[in-house]
Specification:
Length: 216
């Protein structure tokens, strides 16, 4: 009888901890997705404000200094949010919710990129657009290693150059017609790739210096 009670006790304790683990995992996953969604909503509001500024170029005289400043601040925010989101994705298995949010961020960043091009043209801004195209869906082991190395290089470069660089990471394999049109227009055919100032495409490099020479 004692052995039976011990067995039942152990089974009950095991079931309690198992269910508790599932509950905590669910709560943590929900918090992570909600946090990513919060990043997106805040960024979406900032970008909407920028798009209104862009439209205002056609009807009133816009203070270019203010437009450039707002664009730089938004670029820095995208950079910090991207680092935080990457931590969330690295820490947990990617699921449908995170994939959906990731796609939303890609479209948001694409809008920001277009806006950055227009502000640069209208205001003769001196910053550099650095768009990092990478493979998000099932990259090979080789691609993962290469993308991690490029991501680290670009992060280091952004931290050094600061506001002089608009670093825009974009997953290029989610089959969005808008992004596909841009890939075709700028002749980006290999992933990962870096497009600098809508002119230079880099695919093979091993150091920051190889990127920096296009930023002079």
């Amino acid at each position: 009888m004692n052995q039976k009670y011990i067995f039942l006790y152990a089974l009950i304790v095991t079931l309690i901890f198992f269910n508790l683990g599932i509950f905590l995992g669910y709560m943590f996953e929900s918090h992570r997705v909600n946090k990513i969604n919060e990043f997106y909503v805040n960024s979406e509001m900032d970008l909407l404000d920028q798009r209104i500024q862009e439209g205002a170029f056609d009807v009133v005289n816009i203070d270019c200094n203010a437009a450039i400043k707002a664009n730089i601040e938004f670029a820095d925010k995208i950079f910090e949010d991207a680092k935080q989101i990457q931590k969330f994705e690295d820490a947990n298995r990617i699921n449908k919710d995170t994939i959906f949010q990731h796609k939303r961020f890609d479209l948001l960043r694409t809008l920001f990129w277009i806006n950055s091009i227009k502000i640069k043209e209208n205001c003769n801004a001196s910053y550099h657009n650095v768009v990092y195209f990478y493979k998000f869906n099932e990259p090979s082991i080789e691609q993962k290693a290469k993308q991690r190395a490029i991501s680290n290089l670009l992060t280091e470069l952004k931290e050094e150059k600061g506001s002089s660089i608009m670093l825009i990471p974009l997953a290029a394999d989610n089959n969005f017609p808008s992004i596909n049109l841009l890939l075709e227009a700028y002749e980006v055919k290999e992933l990962p790739s870096i497009l600098i100032d809508e002119k230079y495409i880099l695919t093979d490099f091993n150091s920051k210096e190889e990127i920096e020479k296009y930023l002079d």
